[in-house]
Amino acid sequence: YRMQAAVPDAMDIGDEPESIRELYGAEPGGESFANNCLLARRLAERGVRYIQLYDWGWDSHGSSEKEALNGGFQGKCRDIDRPIAALLTDLKQRGMLDDTLVVWGGEFGRTVYCQGTLTQKNYGRDHHPKCFTVWLAGAGVQGGVVHGETDDFSYNVTRDPVHIRDLNATILHQLGIDHERFVYPFKGLDQRLTGVEPASVVRPILSGA
Questions:
Q1: Cβ(202)–Cβ(170) under 8 Å?
Q2: Up-side HSE of residue 79: CA atoms within 13 Å toward CB?
Q3: What tens digit of pLDDT does each residue of 24-51 get?
Q4: How many Å apart are CA 106 and CA 199, to the nearest integer?
């Protein structure tokens, strides 16, 4: 009951100062990624330990203007860039970024080259499983560090590859969890979130590494 009773206050971004709502581009009563980012900060302030924000509509194959890099994709970028920057700024100015880990990622990579031809009205990019970008901020992660590199066509990784197992091990490490000891029994095996193959914490991106 206490959790339910706390929800109306937590969800009411109307009591935020106008300067904060302007920072995010948030509008009370609306539905937007900006509102969600501001809600994420409010939930974190209230002790919620895990918060996931989801933004759909990024399947930019160029099949229509809405799904084209020269169309709807640009608007999608504007929709998330400002509130994400605002969330990091807001967490930092409140002293919350030191112990809040922010992880950003999509479901897969995209080709750097065009899907289709540049002469067509709408164009996009295809799915690409070999190269993928994720960024982390806060909670002991160094700012401004770029780890890994691809070739000029972003087709293959050429330096410092990070497997999803290593990413998960790093996230768990920053949460204070040893991925090798964090196991659960299933069908006679000790299962790990990082799988059965070796995984390593990506220490070059961490502060004091």
A1: yes
A2: 15
A3: 999 999 899 999 999 999 999 999 999 9
A4: 21
